[in-house]
Design brief:
It catalyses: ATP + protein L-histidine = ADP + protein N-phospho-L-histidine. By secondary structure, this protein is α+β, with helices and mostly antiparallel strands. The chain folds into three domains: 3-137; 202-282, Orthogonal Bundle (Helix Hairpins); 289-429, Heat Shock Protein 90 (2-Layer Sandwich), CATH 3.30.565.10. It contains nine helices and 13 strands. Strand 3 and strand 4 (91-96) form a beta hairpin.
């Protein structure tokens, strides 16, 4: 789940909770307001009812006297019920719309779930009770509840849509910076930096921190590259001199000593190959190669012809039409040579080389007939100094291939060959335009 969607859901949950809390508070406030209004009406009704009480002409007890204008009250307050009771809750007189007998008894006792009651003490232990039905209040609260049941889901949905849109716009700078960072990482452009936004906000501070990290990392990588290149250059001359001296020594040495000199010569050549690999690797990493139109199939044929005598069998399958790429000829030759040497060392002396064009990509594959690659070796096969199949070699050959291919904007490939061994190769873009 993307960050944008997670934040949208979080906003929706928070706002929905806010809407629900607001709805509960609104309903509670409306109920309290309506009840206060009802209590005020009941209090005014008891004030008026006090002036309308009089003695019963038969026994002199207190009662409501309609002739004094009491009928006006039910017109002013529909549903009003007035009760005159004693302290024990015995009903003495009632006026207004009479409820059911059971409700009338409850009102006389001063308790009811469907009426709001206001009680005023009178002289001689009598109580005057005014009651209004709660039905209008319940209707208003029910209407509000139904309205909220529609408003809250619609408002939550609208909030989700709006939040998704606004978060998309807000996260767009981060998305753009992520793509820039991925491009720099894929192309190994450690000396480059991310574009800083104009507004100096949290994103700006984040970009500044990333650029500072890139600058520090670039200095370390540049220092390592310079050291590798300087060391390779410094070693090349004395090794070449030493190679010449061993050649002269071989021509003059007696036969018993020659095997040791031949072994020393072989080790020296391996060391020279390592130095050359380091130089090519440093140049590819530093990006100091040059791009020119190069026929990849011609390079593959020439390099395989040079090494063909070392193989028991080496076949090649080349296209009829040239496969032209824009690249550095020297670096590509070194990459092809490294792949062939890997097949020679690990492929049992039998291999096949294929070059073809497909989907605007130039493909070069080498299939050997060795033990092949284990699944756990494939992710590491192009790493520096990784020697997963055997201990022979410097461990830099395939790393050189990866660096050259990456500089050309391509991808390396590794897997099992249909012939039973390993499949190693690469794909780089074909040359476009004239």
């Amino acid at each position: 789940m993307s960050l944008r969607l997670r934040l949208t859901l979080l906003v929706m949950v928070v706002t929905t909770a806010g809407f629900l809390a607001s709805g509960v508070l609104l309903r509670w406030g409306l109920e309290a307001s309506l009840l206060r209004r009802l209590d005020s009406q009941l209090e005014r009704a008891t004030d008026i009812a006090l002036t309308l009480l009089g003695p019963d002409p038969e026994d002199g007890s207190s009662r409501f006297v309609p002739e004094r204008g009491l009928p006006v009250l039910p017109q002013l307050l529909p549903g009003l019920v007035l009760l005159l009771v004693d302290e024990s809750g015995t009903l003495l007189d009632a006026f207004g719309r009479p409820p059911a007998p059971r409700l009338l008894e409850e009102l006389a006792q001063g308790k009811s779930s469907v009426y709001r009651i206001h009680t005023r003490p009178l002289a001689d232990g009598l109580l005057l009770r005014a009651a209004l039905p709660l039905e209008p209040v319940q209707e208003s609260l029910t209407f509000l509840s139904r309205l909220l049941l529609w408003i809250i889901p619609l408002a939550s949905l609208g909030t989700m849509v709006g939040a998704y849109f606004l978060l998309g716009r807000g996260l767009h700078p981060l998305d753009r910076l992520t793509r820039q960072a991925m491009t720099l990482a894929e192309q190994r452009l450690w000396s480059s930096s991310l574009l800083e936004p104009r507004s100096r906000d949290e994103v700006w501070r984040f970009v500044r921190a990333i650029n500072s990290l890139l600058a520090a990392l670039g200095e370390v990588i540049q220092s390592e590259r310079r050291f590798t290149q300087d060391a390779a250059h410094a070693l090349r001359t004395p090794l070449a001199i030493l190679s010449g001296r061993i050649e002269r020594a071989l021509s003059q040495a007696p036969d018993p000593v020659k095997p040791e000199l031949l072994e020393a010569q072989k080790s020296l050549r391996d060391l020279l190959d390592l130095v050359e690999s380091l130089l090519h690797l440093a140049r590819a990493d530093a990006g100091i190669l040059e791009k020119r139109p190069v026929s990849l199939d011609a390079l593959a044929f020439e390099e395989s012809e040079r090494m063909r005598a070392a193989f028991i069998r080496l076949d090649w399958f080349l296209p009829e039409e040239p496969v032209v790429v824009s690249g550095d000829e020297t670096a590509l030759r070194a990459a092809i040579r490294a792949l062939l040497e890997n097949a020679l060392h690990h492929g049992g002396g039998r291999a096949s080389l294929r070059v073809y064009a497909q989907q605007q990509q130039a493909h070069l594959e080498i299939h050997d007939q060795g033990p092949g690659l284990e699944p756990e070796q494939i992710p590491h096969i192009f790493q520096r100094f990784y020697r997963g199949r055997r201990s022979a070699g410097s461990g830099l050959g395939l790393a050189l291939v990866e660096a050259v291919v990456r500089w050309h904007g391509g991808q390396v490939m590794a897997g099992r060959s249909p012939e039973g061994g390993a499949l190693l190769g690469f794909a780089i873009p074909l040359k476009t335009g004239s």
